[in-house]
Amino acid sequence: MPELTQNTLIKPHFPQSEASKEQSAKTRAIIRRTLQQAADLQQLSFEAAMAIKNADSPAKLAETQARAKAVYDATKSWDISVDRVRIFRGKPMPGSLRHDAKSAKPKKAKPTTFTEE
Fold it and tell me: At residue 22, what are phi and psi to the nearest 5 degrees?
């Protein structure tokens, strides 16, 4: 058995079950896919905006505006659907959970010192 020295790090070992590891891998894959989709839609939106900026004729401008509107609509529907999936999974919005005043621990009173003058 190796000798433990002061510099040896001791880490607790909590073995995960195979089901837990598989669920973690699935969750990470879903998050990764969602982030990739968001990045792709961001790039598409940027390209649509730049096409409007670079339109050189009124006909071209009208066409690029129509495409940009379609990109906007698609992005908005994607955002709504991702939000619906989050709700169905029972995940709250970040920062939406607040502690109740009843369940919060009372603040400890600071000790006061009395001095005689």
Answer: -65, -40
